[in-house]
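Run log // design_07
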C-alpha cells in the first residue's frame, strides 16, 4: 500500500470510529466504542466540540485530524510533504492511538532537540526510541533467555551505549554513576551488559545484576562530563553569539592557567546538577577557567 492510500485508510478508520458514537445515559455524555483510535480522547486533545448534540464529523474532517495527529496543519500539507516526511508521518501514525501517545512523542521530540535536523533524523530517533522501549523490557524476561556479555563483546556493547545512545555525551565510559535501586555508585565502565537470546537486543544494567534490575537509563551521572562532537560545536557557537569578539579560530588567553589556545579547542562540560553545559578552558579539569576568562590574544594588552 502506498503512503497516500495508507493515510486515506486511516482517515476512513477514524470516521468508522466516530460512527460508533452513542449517548451514555448513565454518564450523560457522548461516548464511543472505537476499534482503531481512541477518538473521544483525540477530540478532547485537539479541542473538537463533540460534546454538542449536533456535532458532525465527515471524511474531510477525519483527514484533517489525521494530518494534525502527525504534526501538519491540514490534509493538503500532509499529502504534499516530501517522501521522507511522509515516511515519518506513516511511522508515527502507526504508533499513535490516543493523545498520550502524541503528547509523549512531542515532549520527547522537544527534549531531544532532534527536530532541527530534519525528517530523516527524526525518523531515526523515533525508531531508536521504540527499540529502546523494547530493550527496557529485557531485565524482566525469564533468566534462561538472558546472557551476560563478557570480554570484547561486552566492551563493544558498552562503547555503543556510550557513543550511539548518548550522542550528547552526558554518559560516558568513565562517568561515575549512581544506581537508584541498589544505592551504589561506580564507574559506568563496570556496568554489566545483558542480551536477549531471541531478539538479540542488549542493554547496559547495574553492575549488581541480577540482584539489581536497574538499567543505565535510570542511573544518575554524578561527575561533570566533557562533551564532544556536534553537541560541543553547537555549545561553542552559543558562546560566540554571547561574545561576538570570538570565532572558532580565535586564539584566546586563559586568565586562570595563563595558556593560549584556539577557542574551538575549549571544552564543553555538563555537570549533573546544571541544566545547561558550560564552556571551560582547554586544560579542564586541571584549569577551571570559563568562557569569561578567555581573552582574545590580540586584545589582552588593550
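design_07 sequence
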Amino acid at each position: 500500500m502506498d503512503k497516500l492510500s495508507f493515510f486515506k485508510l486511516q482517515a476512513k478508520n477514524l470516521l468508522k470510529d466516530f460512527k460508533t458514537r452513542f449517548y451514555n445515559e448513565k454518564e450523560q455524555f457522548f461516548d464511543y466504542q472505537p476499534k482503531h483510535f481512541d477518538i473521544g480522547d483525540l477530540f478532547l486533545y485537539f479541542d473538537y466540540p463533540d460534546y454538542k448534540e449536533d456535532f458532525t464529523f465527515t471524511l474531510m474532517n477525519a483527514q484533517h485530524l489525521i494530518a494534525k495527529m502527525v504534526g501538519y496543519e491540514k490534509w493538503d500539507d500532509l499529502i504534499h510533504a516530501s517522501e521522507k516526511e511522509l515516511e515519518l508521518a506513516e511511522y508515527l501514525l502507526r504508533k499513535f492511538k490516543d493523545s498520550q501517545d502524541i503528547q509523549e512523542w512531542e515532549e520527547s521530540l522537544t527534549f531531544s532537540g532532534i527536530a532541527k535536523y530534519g525528517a530523516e533524523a527524526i525518523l531515526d530517533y523515533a525508531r531508536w526510541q521504540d527499540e529502546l522501549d523494547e530493550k527496557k523490557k529485557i531485565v524482566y524476561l525469564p533468566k534462561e533467555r538472558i546472557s551476560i556479555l563478557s570480554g570484547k563483546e561486552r566492551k563493544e556493547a558498552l562503547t555503543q551505549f556510550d557513543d550511539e545512545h548518548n550522542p550528547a555525551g552526558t554518559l560516558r565510559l568513565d562517568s561515575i554513576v549512581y544506581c537508584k535501586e541498589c544505592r551504589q555508585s561506580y564507574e559506568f565502565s563496570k556496568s554489566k551488559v545483558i542480551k536477549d537470546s531471541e531478539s538479540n537486543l542488549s542493554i547496559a544494567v547495574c553492575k549488581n545484576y541480577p540482584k539489581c534490575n536497574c538499567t543505565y537509563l535510570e542511573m544518575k551521572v554524578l561527575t561533570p562530563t566533557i562533551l564532544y562532537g556536534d553537541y560541543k560545536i553547537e555549545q561553542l557557537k552559543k558562546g560566540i553569539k554571547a561574545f561576538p569578539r570570538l570565532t572558532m579560530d580565535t586564539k584566546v588567553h586563559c586568565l586562570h592557567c595563563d595558556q593560549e589556545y584556539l577557542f574551538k579547542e575549549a571544552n564543553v562540560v555538563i555537570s549533573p546538577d546544571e541544566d545547561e553545559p558550560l564552556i571551560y578552558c582547554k586544560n579542564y579539569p586541571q584549569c577551571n577557567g570559563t568562557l569569561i576568562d578567555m581573552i582574545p590574544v590580540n586584545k589582552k594588552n588593550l
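The radius of gyration is 25 Å.
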